[in-house]
Amino acid sequence: MKVEFKGVYKRYGKFTAVSNLNLTIEDGALHFLLGPSGCGKTTTLRMLAGLETVTEGQILFDGKDVTKLPASERGIGMVFQNYALWPHMTVYQNIEYGLKLRKLPKEEVQSRINEVLDFTQLSNFSHRLPGQLSGGQQQRVALARALAIRPNVLLLDEPLSNLDAKLRLEMRDNISRIHRQTGITTLYVTHDQKESLSMGTSITVMHSGKQIQTGTPRELYNKPESAFLAGFIGETNLIAGTVSEIDAEKAVVDTELGTVISKNLMTKLNKGDACTVSIRPEAIDVNAGDHKVSAAAENKFSLKVTNVTYLGESEQLKFEYGSGRVMRANLHNPGLQLVEEEQTVECGFKAADVALLPEQEDLGPGT
Q: Confidence class of residue 160 from pLDDT cuts 50, 70 and 90?
């Protein structure tokens, strides 16, 4: 099922929760709505489900206008943040409930329940009550119940937020596997960047009710069109500067760090324009132990280490530059401690790893 939002607005009196949303969710996609709390992503999901009315614009399913269609007639399956399971019903009965309301033949009900129990790997738990299950198992029951009705579109609203870190990782794999098996168009709302990057076929980032950028995880991470997006998707160093030279292939930017060369031009700028450069911590090489600054790095600086954070698989270094500014670099597989605080080391990064972006704008606190 292909889903389209065309010029969709949601207003509450004078307050606009969603503004001019134009978005296509392709058939079979696992599409993420990502953004900080209050950005309008859950309101968007609820309009799609028919739980909120659209103030202006259209929502289309495979080209059919469903904007005014009741929620019960849209063929939507939804998994809520709190799972909403019946505590007095077994796993089997929780899944069966929605099918009984549809007055399906007994054989069809049995077949669908067995199918989704298999998808969600719950066949051995069908006679247990929700209170006898782990958080991850309860989550899978809620997912099985939504899948059993064979929805046109599956909606997931922050489904992993109540799980601990280990269970979240496990459920990411489960949801991705189930999506591959079923091929159901799925819209997944979250504020967790790791979830969206690791699972999504496409992501829409929102802020203050507006769509900031839509693309694949790799596109958003490597080709952000704004400083907000670069800082929100993953971790980055954002450095303000002024363009001193620019052509079709590269730009030279004056910053507090020094002169920075970029070959990843994400916006059209002219000489003298204010701008922001984005440099991911993992793109910065450091001369430490076996770690060396590449000879191909067009940008090289000597910086003093102000903080070292050991994370096991990596070590994050913080450097101070300019008027108390901080830049971060990540050393992967650091082994023994290679750098100490107050030590001055050479850092370097390639011009291709420097994204040239418009001047950072204040998007407000959200909605």
A: confident
**pLDDT tens profile 8-33:** 999 999 999 999 999 999 999 999 99
The secondary structure of residue 291, as a DSSP letter, is: B
- Residue linked to tokens 């994050």: 316
Order of strands, sheet of 30-34, starting from the edge strand that comes earlier in the sequence: 76-79, 153-157, 185-190, 30-34, 202-207, 210-215
| Residue 79, strand partner residues | 156
What's the rounded Cα separation, in Å, for the pair 231 and 67? 34
Helix, strand and coil percent figures for the chain, each rounded to 5: 25, 35, 35
In the chain, the domains with their CATH numbers are: 3-222 (3.40.50.300), 231-358 (2.40.50.100)
pTM of the model: 0.88
Whole-angstrom distance, CA of residue 225 vs CA of residue 219: 10
Cα 323 to the chain's mean position, in Å? 33
Spatial neighbors of 17 by CB under 8 A, at least 6 apart, are 10, 11, 40, 43, 209, 367
Q: Spell 306-331 as b/e; 16+ CB within 10 A means b.
A: bebeeeeeebbbbbebeeeeebbbbb
Paired tokens of 135: 């958080």
